[in-house]
Write a structure and sequence with these properties.
Elements (H helix, E strand, L loop, with lengths): L12 H15 L2 E4 L2 E4 L2 H8 L5 E2 L20 H12 L2 H5 L2 H15 L2 E3 H6 L1 H11 L6 H8 L10 H24 L5 H7 L9 H32 L1 H9 L4 H11 L6 E5 L3 E3 L2 E3 L4 E4 L1 H4 L34 H18 L4 E2 L4 E2 L8 E3 L1 E3 L1
Parallel strand pairs: 2-8
Antiparallel strand pairs: 1-2, 3-5, 4-12, 5-8, 6-7, 9-12, 10-11
Helix pairs in contact: 3-10, 5-7, 5-15, 7-8, 7-11, 9-11, 11-15, 13-15
The chain binds protoporphyrin IX containing FE (HEM).
Length: 376
């Protein structure tokens, strides 16, 4: 029975998710899945992210075959890269995007009509357009860029050759653009990354490419999922939605609660660098350890009445953006994008209704709506 308890991409997992996670936390806090071990309790996941010496991000299959990405590195190189990148990806640059986010959100909502699939027509479009502007993709290439990068959530139905071709085109596109920026810098993230220097060190070409690509895989689908999950949660809790309509200053807190309750990134891996004993189980050196942010964020040992959506919860901490040295570098951007998206949606249609035929993605790592039909 326990071998089949956790099957995140199976049909129906979404309906059973809360109960499955509870059983895992209570009865199998270190749950073996072949050569992998799943951690679901808040305290265990929290401890693991603060212990990169034992739970390493390096040497994972996900990081192989790509340019170097800091998400798959340990210190000291991780720290050096993160400091370099932070010189370019500054709070000021992020804050400067707010007016554009608002304009694009309004355009998308105005174009949506009285009935719309808000997953495809709104939640998926806003982050990829913002990311293109942030990175500095020229206007004429944005459509191609959007098509190439819109979703990495669902890989079923796409052949391996197709994925490799897509990755190669993204790679070529970044290569050209970085060369152009090297010749003629502009006011965008790519130019700032090229100029970033710490102690005489700069990012190598491979690291530049790797970071641009990481922004796409870490920042697009996740923010799309957050906005989609929030649209459904607010429709399911009309009294709390009405509070946000009356007082939009509550939206940021509501967005944090959305990230906690329906964490867009449900699970991410580490590698055990030595044998680790936990709850009577030995995780052998070299095993993949899956940190289940989604289950940890529903742990009643940490949160009162954890399955309840409560825009006033004000939880002092959660794991929806990870923690420790790999804490999400884009969390402020994601929260701002979602805040502006909800400010605009609630202004446009304060009482939107969900239609019956919504559909989740089947995904081993993401919690996201594929289709979310809404009428205004
Ligand atoms: C709701 C939206 C988002 C969620 C739920 C999310 C979630 C996460 C999580 C859980 C991690 C930790 C990874 C780990 O410890 O292995 C992470 C790291 C990261 N995120 Fe996000 N993220 C979001 C949005 C963004 C955005 C908008 C960007 C960029 C513009 C971004 C860029 C990154 C990067 C670069 C890292 C790696 C940091 C490092 O290795 O030091 N994320 N994110």
């Amino acid at each position: 029975m326990t071998a089949t308890l956790y099957r995140p991409s199976a049909a129906g997992f979404d309906t059973d998710r809360t109960e499955v996670y509870r059983r895992l936390r209570d009865d199998h806090p270190v749950h073996r899945l072949g050569e992998q071990y799943l951690l679901t309790r808040f305290d265990d996941v929290w401890a693991a992210v603060h212990d990169w010496q034992r739970f390493s991000s390096a040497g994972l299959a996900e990081g192989a075959g790509h340019q170097p990405m800091m998400i798959y590195m340990d210190p000291p190189r991780h720290r050096e890269l993160r400091v370099l990148v932070s010189r370019a990806f500054t709070p000021r640059r992020v804050a400067g995007l707010e007016p554009r986010i608002r304009t694009i959100a309004r355009e998308l909502l105005d174009a949506a009509g009285p009935r719309a699939d808000l997953a495809g027509q709104f939640a998926a479009k806003l982050p990829s357009r913002i990311m293109a502007e942030l990175i500095g993709i020229p206007e004429e290439q944005r459509e191609t860029f959007r098509e190439l990068t819109e979703s990495f959530i669902e890989t079923d139905g796409r052949t391996r050759e197709e994925s490799v071709r897509r990755l190669q085109r993204i790679h070529d596109m970044f290569d050209d653009l970085l060369q152009q920026r090297r010749r003629r810098p502009a006011d965008d993230l790519m130019s700032a990354l090229l100029a970033a220097e710490v102690d005489g060190q700069r990012l190598t070409d491979d690291e530049l490419q790797g970071f641009c690509f990481l922004l796409l895989i870490a920042g697009n689908d996740t923010t799309t999922s957050l906005i989609g999950n929030g649209i459904a949660l607010l429709a399911e809790h009309p009294e709390q939605r009405a509070e946000l309509v009356a007082d939009p200053s509550l939206i940021t807190g509501a967005v944090e609660e959305m990230v906690r309750l329906e964490s867009p990134t449900q699970v991410l891996p580490r590698r055990a660098t030595r044998d680790v004993e936990l709850h009577g189980v030995t995780i052998p050196e070299g095993s993949r350890v899956l940190l289940c942010w989604g289950a940890a964020n529903l742990d009643e040992r940490e949160f009162a009445d954890p399955a309840r959506f409560d825009i006033h919860r004000g939880a002092p901490r959660h794991l929806g953006f990870g923690r420790g040295i790999h804490f999400c570098i884009g969390s402020a951007l994601a929260i701002m994008e979602a805040r502006v998206a909800f400010e605009e949606l609630l202004r446009h249609a304060p009482q939107y209704r969900l239609e019956a035929d919504r559909e989740r993605y089947a995904s081993s790592w993401a919690l996201a709506w594929k289709r979310l039909p809404v009428s205004f």
